[in-house]
Design a protein that fits this description.
The structure is a single chain. This protein is mostly helical. It is 62% helix and 0% strand. 0% of the residues are buried.
Length: 74
């Protein structure tokens, strides 16, 4: 594989950025919802999602020191 010069690499990046800007402008002009709004509510009333959230909460709480435990100095 040939090594590209700095100018060639910058030109390739500029082409990619121009392509991405065009794509974003097209999506904005269509009025599509952002991805995060498209998936909002996808797990509503899903028992597996609720279980995953409960397990995550329990894990995070298990990492907190209890009131009766002494915190070790650094």
């Amino acid at each position: 594989m040939a090594t590209l010069s700095l100018e060639e690499r910058v030109a390739a990046l500029e082409t990619d950025v121009a392509h991405l800007k065009t794509k974003v402008a097209q999506e904005e002009s269509r009025g599509d919802l952002p991805w995060w709004e498209q998936i909002f509510g996808a797990f509503e009333d899903d028992p597996l999602f609720e279980e995953a959230m409960a397990l995550g909460r329990a894990y995070r709480e298990s990492l907190r020191p209890r009131d009766d435990e002494e915190i070790a100095p650094d």
